[in-house]
Amino acid sequence: MRRVLLTIPALAVSATMAFAQAPAAKPTATASKAAGAKKQPNVEFEMMTWPEVKAALATGKTTALVYTGGTEQRGPQNVNGGHTLMGREIVRTIALRLGNAIAMPVLPYTPNNASAELPGTIGLTPEILGTILERITEQSMATGFKNVILMGDHGGGQPGTYAEVAKKMDAKYAPEGKHVYFCDEVYAKAQGDFDTWLKEKGYPSSSHAGIPDTSTMLYLGGDKGWVRKELIPTAEGDPVAPPGSRGRGRGQVDPNAPPRKNNGITGDARKSTAALGKMAFDIKIDYAVKQIQGFLASQTKSTGQ
After folding, report:
1. Of 285, 107, 278, nearest to 187 (Cα)?
2. 159 phi/psi in degrees, rounded to 5
3. DSSP strand E in the chain: where?
4. Is 133 exposed, middle or buried (0-12, 13-18, 19+ CB in 10 A)?
5. Which has the closest alpha carbon to 43: 24, 60, 29?
6. How far apart are CA 257 and CA 10, in angstroms?
7. Which of 90, 226, 235, 287 could staple 221 via S-S, CB 3.0–4.6 A?
8. Residues lower than pLDDT 70 in the chain
């Protein structure tokens, strides 16, 4: 997965430093959520009945969060459904934080290509994804939502397909006072800033199935079997390719370089911890909530002018 490196804001660092410094043995997100699960409103469309959806819409939960996951090999240590599993927790938490949104079912397939050598990936084409996103948007509007937010946990199709669909569908529904947006900061900005922070703190370079992915899966599902914890001490793959080179781990020009491991990991994931995962998770939530609130606030401002 390609990550965009950006400078991490001081506010994000101060808000999350405690998590990165915490011991890896702290309780996972599942344990933390279990204690307060009964107090949280149900914001997951697939876990609601139709009367519950209708009531939620009537009380102002008129923003549909469409989050895409993906089915993709994630190295020997992580299950193939990682994008989708993380996506469910991320979008549910975003909906809870917003207070006016409902998380739609997470799409488990995004642009990618299957491989018999590393048989963990099942992908769509960008064109198929675009058609699916358009249909989901139309169905969400027909259900009664006034806003649809498109987001993704996998790089395939971003930003191109998501941005194009959001622009096309917003133009279609804007005359009705409805809107469609692409929330890109939950992926590119959040992951890029976290990567920069890791580098500044001396963590080894990694991207696909590396420290961010493995740590987040440890935090959210370390007690659910999402990660083969016994394999983390050996979770080292091919080097991260230099900027501008093509392919994962193929940026080496030294003919004497060791052969590729080709185990699905790009970089070194051996220092992954649940504490780092919480930091990465919280940054994604913070960035998404702020960007979505900005989208909705711009509507109010335009209406008032």
Report:
1. 285
2. -85, -15
3. 63-68, 101-103, 147-152, 179-182
4. buried
5. 60
6. 39
7. 226
8. 1-38, 243-257, 301-305
